[in-house]
Amino acid sequence: MEQTNSDLKPNDARTDDWTARLHRATRATREDWLGRGISYLCIGVIILVVASMLWFITSKGIATFTQNHVNLWKFISGTNWSPNQGQIGALPMIVGSFAVTFAAAIVATPFAVGTAIFMTEIAPNKGRKFLQPVIELLVGIPSVVYGFIGLAVVVPFMRHLVGGSGFGIISATFVLFVMVLPTITTMTVDSLRAVPRFYKEASLALGATRWQTVSRVILRAATPGILTAIIFGMARAFGEALAVQMVIGNAAIMPKNLISPAATLTSQLTTGIGDTIDGTLPSNALWSLALILLLMSLFFNALVRLIAKRGQLSHER
To answer: What stretches pass through the bilayer (predicted)?
Structure first.
């Protein structure tokens, strides 16, 4: 018997429906592969750029030891910096960088933690809404503005207070203190807000005061995040160039105290890189300073990852 057109219509409709579904699935698969391809391409470009930067700085930095045959230990421990005369002791800049970095972190951390506690545990909503834009404004101010303020305010103040030229590690510390304060404060606020709320509720339910709860419960739980914030602040202070250069004095000598002029790795790089010829000992020595900066940046990143991993393990326990 021959099938009528009415018998064929349901089968045709079902076939068209399956065809439409297959078409949509094929189109979604193509879009998925296209999205993955674009993502992998972007990731590959980023990896290539980072690897190129690492290779470029490393190859330039080790030229001092491979081409100019400078002893690595003498370079790190030497105290005389005069590349034009063949003396390239980097110890004064290394000491200056660590001195301003640790001093700025030590001064900024109590203020940052106190501000973060006030914003998360004490201040009303109006206080939080007022402090948050102020902190964000400090982040957005360019480094050169901090340097000019330090040059016009901090240096004359230190000159009047302790004598001398006013340039030195202490002046750079005050400038970096203001610069790293918003970074440490913002990350500390995020760490305190990430503490589970039931920690605070359980402490208060057991009869602890608000300060006991903050100091013995909330701060302890947020310690890994606070340490990460401090490390990030130190990383920014260690790599700051322009603002420090304007107030530290740029004297490549071993600092005797906090008020004596000094130099950092970044300030020496910015002042000397434009006056050298590529391939010469002065140029290679500056690239070696840049390599030290790169290694310190990698060290700070590794330290942040280690603290974060230990924090996760402590929370799991």
So the answer is: 37-57, 90-113, 134-155, 167-189, 217-238, 285-308
What CATH number is attached to the domain comprising 240?
Answer: 1.10.3720.10
Q: With contact defined as beta carbons under 8 Å apart, do 254 and 228 qualify? A: no
Residue 123 lies in a domain: yes
Q: Which long-range contacts (CB under 8 A, 24 or more apart) does 173-176 make?
A: 173/100, 173/103, 173/104, 173/107, 173/258, 174/107, 174/150, 175/146, 175/147, 175/149, 175/150, 175/243, 175/244, 175/247, 176/100, 176/101, 176/103, 176/104, 176/108, 176/237, 176/240, 176/243, 176/244
In a domain, 67, yes or no: no
Which residues form the domain of 15?
5-61
Residues 82 and 225 reside in one and the same domain: yes
CA distance 218 to 191: 10
Query: Model-level pTM greater than 0.85?
Result: no
> Which tokens belong to 219?
């701060």
With vertex at residue 224, the alpha carbon angle to CA 301 and CA 228, rounded to the nearest 5 degrees, is: 35
Domain tally, the chain: 2
Q: Which residues pair with 88 in a beta bridge?
A: 81
Q: Model confidence over 6-37: pLDDT tens digits?
A: 454 555 555 656 666 656 656 667 777 778 88
